[in-house]
C-alpha cells in the first residue's frame, strides 16, 4: 500500500530558530560513536572506489571515522595490525559467507581485535546477517558491530535484538545503485523518511547510508534521527582516495562504481550497481572542512550548540525547491 507522507532530502527544509552562538566556530560537530569520538558524523562508504588502507588510517589518525571495504579479504588482518601500529582504531567490513566465519576465528586465534566491524550486505534483514551479528558478538564481544543494510523499523529491531550496536539504513538510494530499477525495491526517493521511521524504534545507533547529494543533507539526516551518515559519491574523486585520474575533453575524473556492479564483481551476475565518472575534487580534507563549516552553520540555524540540537528543529515539506529552480 503506497504511503502518502513520504519524502526525501530534496523535499525538506529545516526551520531556523534564534541563534545562541556568537560565531559558527562555537558549534560542536563531534560525535561519540562506539568507543571513540570523531570530529564529524560522517564516514566514507566502504567501497573500493572511495576508500583504501592508506586513506583509512590517515582518517583515523585525524579523528574521522572510516569503514574499510571488504573486497580484498586477504588484506584485512594485516590492515588491523597496520591501524593499531599507527595508533588508531581498526574498522573493517565483513560479509556473511562461510569463509567470513573462518576469518573471524583466525582473528580470535591471533588476538587481533578490530574496534569496529561492519556487516556489509545489500539485504541486511536476513538470518544470515542475524547469525553473523551473534557470531561476532560471541567471538569478539568488545567489538562495535554495525549491521545492514535495512529499510524498515522491524528490520532495525531484529538486528538490534541480535546484538548490533548500530544499524545502517538505506536500500537503493545510492548514486551508483540500480537496485530500485532491477528489483522494484528500496528506499530510493524516500530515504529520509525511512531514516525517520527507523530512528523512531531504534534503541541503539542509526547510520544513514546513501543519497547524500549536498552537505545540508547531513544536517537533515541528523535532524531526522541518524547518528552517523555514510557517504559514497561525495567522497569519491579525491586526490587521496583510490583510483587513477582519467582525462577527458580537458576535464579530470575518477571512477566511482557500485559494490554490486560488474566492475566490482568481475562478472555480470546479480548486478545491482553501475559505474560513473566523478570530477576530480582535490583534497578530501578540504571537503571535510567544508562539511564541518556547513554543519556548524546548520547547528547555528537550529538555535543550538551541538549535533543533538538539530533533532529539536521543525521542518516543512516543500517539493522540488531545493535548488531554487537552478539545476546548473
Ligand atoms: N545499500 C544498498 O542498497 C546495496 C548495497 N549493495 C552493496 O553491494 C555489495 C554486495 O552485496 P551483497 O550482494 O549483499 O553481498 P555478497 O555478494 O557478499 O552476498 C552476500 C550473501 O548474501 C546472498 N544474497 C545477496 N543478496 C541476496 C538477496 N537479495 N536475497 C538472498 N540472499 C542474498 C548472497 O548469495 P547469492 O549472491 O547467491 O544470492 C551471498 O551469499 C555490498 O557491498 C553491498 O553493500 C548492493 C546492493 C544494494
Ligand atoms: N544498490 C546498490 N547500492 C550500492 C552499491 N554500491 C554501494 N551502494 C550503496 O551506496 C552507498 C553510497 O551512496 P551515495 O549516494 O553516497 O553514493 C553505499 O554506502 C552503499 O550502501 C551497489 O552496487 N548497488
Automatic annotation (TrEMBL):
<dbReference type="InterPro" id="IPR005994">
    <property type="entry name" value="GuaC_type_2"/>
</dbReference>
<dbReference type="InterPro" id="IPR013785">
    <property type="entry name" value="Aldolase_TIM"/>
</dbReference>
<feature type="active site" description="Thioimidate intermediate">
    <location>
        <position position="177"/>
    </location>
</feature>
<feature type="domain" description="IMP dehydrogenase/GMP reductase">
    <location>
        <begin position="8"/>
        <end position="315"/>
    </location>
</feature>
<dbReference type="InterPro" id="IPR001093">
    <property type="entry name" value="IMP_DH_GMPRt"/>
</dbReference>
<comment type="similarity">
    <text>Belongs to the IMPDH/GMPR family. GuaC type 2 subfamily.</text>
</comment>
<dbReference type="GO" id="GO:0006163">
    <property type="term" value="P:purine nucleotide metabolic process"/>
</dbReference>
<feature type="binding site">
    <location>
        <begin position="206"/>
        <end position="229"/>
    </location>
    <ligand>
        <name>NADP(+)</name>
    </ligand>
</feature>
<dbReference type="GO" id="GO:0003920">
    <property type="term" value="F:GMP reductase activity"/>
</dbReference>
<dbReference type="InterPro" id="IPR050139">
    <property type="entry name" value="GMP_reductase"/>
</dbReference>
<comment type="function">
    <text>Catalyzes the irreversible NADPH-dependent deamination of GMP to IMP. It functions in the conversion of nucleobase, nucleoside and nucleotide derivatives of G to A nucleotides, and in maintaining the intracellular balance of A and G nucleotides.</text>
</comment>
<dbReference type="GO" id="GO:0016616">
    <property type="term" value="F:oxidoreductase activity, acting on the CH-OH group of donors, NAD or NADP as acceptor"/>
</dbReference>
<dbReference type="GO" id="GO:0005829">
    <property type="term" value="C:cytosol"/>
</dbReference>
<protein>
    <recommendedName>
        <fullName>GMP reductase</fullName>
        <ecNumber>1.7.1.7</ecNumber>
    </recommendedName>
</protein>
<keyword id="KW-0521">NADP</keyword>
<keyword id="KW-0560">Oxidoreductase</keyword>
<dbReference type="Pfam" id="PF00478">
    <property type="entry name" value="IMPDH"/>
</dbReference>
<dbReference type="GO" id="GO:1902560">
    <property type="term" value="C:GMP reductase complex"/>
</dbReference>
Amino acid at each position: 500500500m503506497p504511503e502518502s507522507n513520504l519524502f526525501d532530502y530534496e523535499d525538506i527544509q529545516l526551520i531556523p530558530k534564534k541563534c545562541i552562538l556568537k560565531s559558527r566556530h562555537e558549534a560542536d560537530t563531534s560525535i561519540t560513536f562506539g568507543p571513540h569520538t570523531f570530529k564529524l558524523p560522517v564516514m566514507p562508504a566502504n567501497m573500493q572506489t572511495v576508500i583504501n588502507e592508506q586513506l583509512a588510517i590517515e582518517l583515523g589518525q585525524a579523528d574521522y571515522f572510516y569503514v574499510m571495504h571488504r573486497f580484498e579479504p586477504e588484506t584485512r588482518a594485516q590492515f588491523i595490525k597496520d591501524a593499531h601500529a599507527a595508533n588508531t582504531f581498526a574498522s573493517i567490513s565483513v560479509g556473511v559467507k562461510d569463509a567470513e566465519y573462518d576469518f573471524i576465528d583466525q582473528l580470535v586465534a591471533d588476538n587481533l581485535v578490530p574496534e569496529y566491524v561492519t556487516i556489509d550486505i545489500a539485504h541486511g534483514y536476513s538470518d544470515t546477517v542475524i547469525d553473523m551479528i551473534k557470531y561476532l558478538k560471541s567471538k569478539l564481544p568488545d567489538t562495535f558491530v554495525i549491521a545492514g543494510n535495512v529499510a524498515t523499523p522491524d528490520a532495525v529491531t531484529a538486528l538490534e535484538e541480535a546484538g548490533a550496536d548500530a544499524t545502517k539504513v538505506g536500500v537503493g538510494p545510492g548514486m551508483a545503485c540500480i537496485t530500485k530499477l532491477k528489483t522494484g525495491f528500496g528506499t530510493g526517493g524516500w530515504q529520509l523518511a525511512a531514516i525517520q521511521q527507523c530512528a523512531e524504534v531504534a534503541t541503539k545507533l542509526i547510520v544513514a547510508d546513501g543519497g547524500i547529494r549536498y552537505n545540508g543533507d547531513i544536517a537533515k539526516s541528523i535532524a531526522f534521527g541518524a547518528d552517523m551518515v555514510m557517504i559514497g559519491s561525495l567522497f569519491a574523486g579525491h586526490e587521496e582516495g583510490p583510483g587513477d585520474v582519467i582525462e577527458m575533453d580537458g576535464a579530470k575524473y575518477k571512477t566511482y562504481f557500485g559494490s554490486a556492479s560488474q566492475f566490482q564483481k568481475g562478472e555480470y551476475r546479480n548486478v545491482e550497481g553501475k559505474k560513473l565518472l566523478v570530477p576530480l575534487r582535490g583534497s578530501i580534507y578540504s571537503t571535510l572542512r567544508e562539511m564541518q563549516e556547513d554543519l556548524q552553520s546548520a547547528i547555528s540555524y537550529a538555535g543550538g550548540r551541538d549535533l543533538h540540537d538539530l533533532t529539536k528543529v521543525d521542518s516543512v515539506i516543500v517539493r522540488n525547491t531545493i535548488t531554487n529552480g537552478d539545476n546548473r
